[in-house]
Design goal:
Layout (H helix, E strand, L loop, with lengths): L7 H5 L4 E3 L8 E6 L1 H8 L8 H5 L11 E9 L2 E7 L3 E9 L2 E8 L14 E2 H16 L6 E13 L3 E11 L5 H10 L2 H15 L8 H22 L1 E2 L21 E2 L23 H15 L6 H8 L2 H17 L6 H18 L3 H14 L5 H5 L1 H11 L5 H7 L7 H12 L4 H11 L29
Antiparallel strand pairs: 1-3, 2-8, 3-4, 5-6, 6-9, 7-9, 8-9, 10-11
Helix pairs in contact: 4-16, 4-17, 5-6, 5-8, 7-8, 7-9, 7-10, 8-9, 10-11, 11-14, 16-17
């Protein structure tokens, strides 16, 4: 078979799953396939002709056992006990050697846990998730991956009537904080313990026999490192509810996300986030708040003082991970930590005052270092920071590393919308071209690419929809 399934989750946790086939929504069309990821999952086998039929539920994918998962979560700070995978199904676990990978179908139709949701996904949101997941992966930020995109004949009512789609995505695990909140509030302590241990064994087998507090500390560390990477690259998730937080620190459940264009760190893109809970500057604090909710949920398993000790490591881990990421971007590995933080603060202030493009400003710094004189933003208004940087770094910037971590191409909302508009009209050429660029974002050949261009004033987007 092209993919070998184990389906261990369905077997082990029947009390928090319901078997549910993919519900077809008319004829389907395979719009995009992640060829390299498919090759990893199948040891290089050719995709079968039936793949789109399998993904669309028109035929059963041999070996798979689709299930809807049950979980709860805090949404915008308020607990909702009635959540579940209303827009998707866990198709099964793919086995490659000794590695297990979850495969999930977003947009697979209504499930027993949908609670009024129609269970369908639209082409717009599916493309946006595809773009973001592959961009984050190329930036080495932990994330779910996009495997395949199909369109359906469905016409789905959101803010407007939109074409339907299904997105197959992979993850180390789709277990989220909300699974443990569900178990806690339903008194399912045995399920909680078994789910926790099973997830650890699959994800971090070296911790399988460790004390549970050490395992929890790893969850804290992984979450901190993920969010630190978001901060370093100006990625705003947009809806960091606990049901959207992976236990293993992978970015998933993309909604109204954005990468910053102009450096406006207080900007809120999610049009439903009236209180500004999920902006860039709030993400580190929300990450800790979510971990505290997870700690409450698993409190029957771990002593409270050990939970507090693990949570106390969050801020140091986040600071360390952020400093490592931003240090690479600014080429300051030879600079002592205290001076690095001072230069980082000055850099961000320079970007904010000038409303500079957050991604291309780093490339201005590389150009300046190579020319040995200020270029771009630094030539226009950054002379004092440029002088301070040179005094501290003293000619020891690692330009080669900087070129490997500072992208020319990032997901920009105006480019994503161009791709979506073309795809809705039946043209996938822009989608394929943009994804290829996002998968190779550091290539010098992209310097003059249209995909590297920031938006004009008319192309700036102020709000994004949370609907999928």
């Amino acid at each position: 078979m092209p993919i070998v399934f184990d389906n261990r989750f369905a077997r082990k946790f029947p009390e928090i799953t319901t078997r549910q086939p993919i519900k077809p929504d008319g004829e389907v069309n395979l719009r995009w396939l992640n060829s390299s990821l498919w090759a990893e999952l199948t040891n290089g086998e050719t995709p079968p002709a039936e793949l789109s039929q399998w993904l669309g539920g028109l035929e059963h994918w041999p070996g798979s056992d689709p299930v809807a998962q049950k979980y709860a979560g805090h949404q915008f700070g308020h607990f909702n006990p009635y959540l579940g995978d209303g827009r998707g199904l866990l198709l099964g676990q793919a086995v490659v050697g000794d590695k297990i990978t979850d495969i999930h179908i977003k947009g697979a139709g209504p499930t027993p846990y949908s609670r009024g949701a129609d269970g369908r996904a639209v082409l717009r949101s599916s493309i946006r998730e595809l773009l973001a997941s592959e961009a984050l992966h190329a930036l080495t930020i932990p994330t779910t991956r996009a495997l395949a995109l199909i369109s359906t004949q469905g016409k789905i009512q959101r803010e407007r009537v939109e074409p339907g789609a299904m997105l197959a995505r992979t993850a180390t695990t789709h277990v989220r904080f909300g699974h443990f909140e569900h178990c806690f509030h339903r008194g399912l302590e045995d399920t909680m313990h078994n789910l926790w241990q099973d997830t650890i064994e699959v994800t971090w087998p070296h911790l399988a026999d460790a004390d549970i507090e050490e395992q929890f500390s790893q969850v804290v560390k992984s979450t901190a490192e993920m969010i630190a990477a978001w901060q370093a690259y100006g990625f705003i998730h947009g809806v960091m509810n606990t049901d959207n937080m992976s236990l293993v620190g992978e970015t998933f459940d993309f909604g109204p996300y954005a990468f910053l264009d102009d450096y406006q760190p207080e900007k809120i893109f999610n049009h439903t986030d009236a209180g500004g809970r999920y902006g860039l500057l709030q993400q580190p604090g929300v990450g800790l708040w979510n971990l505290q909710r997870l700690a409450q949920a698993v409190s029957p398993l771990i002593e409270s003082d050990k939970l507090r000790a693990a949570l106390d490591t969050y801020e140091p881990e986040l600071r360390k991970a952020y400093l490592n990421r931003i240090t690479e971007r600014l080429g300051m590995s030879s600079v002592p930590a205290k001076e690095r933080m001072q230069l980082v603060g000055g850099w961000l202030s320079l970007l904010e005052v000038n409303q500079a493009d957050y991604q291309l400003a780093f490339r201005d710094l590389i150009d300046s270092l190579e020319a040995k004189e200020p270029k771009g933003l630094l030539a226009r208004s950054g002379d004092s920071w440029w002088q301070e940087y040179n005094n501290v770094v003293n000619g020891k910037s690692d330009i080669d590393v900087m070129k490997q971590v500072n992208p020319w191409v990032i997901v920009r909302t105006h480019h994503a919308q161009r791709v979506i508009d073309a795809a809705e009209a039946g043209d996938d050429s822009l989608l394929h071209d943009y994804v290829q660029a996002l998968m190779n974002p550091f290539s010098e050949r992209l310097r003059e690419s249209p995909w590297a261009k920031p938006p004009t004033a008319e192309e700036q987007v102020s709000e994004l929809s949370c609907s999928s």
